[in-house]
């Protein structure tokens, strides 16, 4: 699974890399994101592929009563996406989640009391996009509409099986040349085999 990511590029660099403009009124700063704080992070949606917006990590289905639900939907298994009530209505709402790395902890004992922290990235610290799905959610208490998303995960490859050695999952990173194919047609061409990891 993936609950901690990093985005260290400037807004100008992201606009150039993803050929999309920041939505009006938003700003982006280099940040390390903790999913459990449900941060607003930059994404690009299928519905507006030329625009970078901010969206809360942790997908809120329309029927969810309150925002505490988000702790269950930071990640979504791609294998069961169309079966889970939380996700099945949003499979067409594809998005790219912008980052340039993520963090994972390797368990060194049976209960995870001792761990090693790793930072995982692509070569040359380049920006990339996780595959995700997103939703609109109406907060009944404030009347505010929130953009929210979940990050898609898959079975870990050899590198990530060594690091994420309990559940053996990893986020799906979309190949740069196939980002529009993911948004437009839902075709997943992944770049996960390019990942490299550093002990931190």
Averaged pLDDT: 95
- Classify the fold: give the CATH topology: hypothetical protein yedk fold
Give the count of structural domains: 1
Give the strand order, joined by hyphens, for the main sheet: 3-1-8-9-14
Secondary-structure element pattern, one letter each = EHEEEEEEEEEEHEEHE
**Which structural category do the helix and sheet elements fall into?**
mainly beta
CATH architecture: Alpha-Beta Complex
What is the quaternary state of this protein?
A: single chain
CATH class call: Alpha Beta
Q: Whole-number radius of gyration?
A: 16 Å
Could you say which overall geometry the principal axes of the C-alpha atoms support?
globular
Helix content: 10-25%
User: What's the total helix number?
Assistant: 3
Beta-strand segment tally: 14
CATH 4th-level superfamily: SOS response associated peptidase-like
- Biggest pleated sheet: 5 strands, antiparallel
Which range does the strand content fall in? 35-45%
Low-confidence stretches: none
Structure characterization notes:
With 200 residues, the protein is mainly beta. It has a single domain, classed as hypothetical protein yedk fold (Alpha-Beta Complex). The protein is 10% helix and 41% strand. It has helices spanning 11-18, 158-163, 179-185; strands spanning 4-7, 21-22, 31-34, 40-45, 48-57, 75-77, 94-99, 101-107, 115-121, 128-139, 144-155, 169-171, 173-174, 196-199. It has a 5-stranded antiparallel beta sheet with strand order 3-1-8-9-14. The two termini are 18 Å apart.
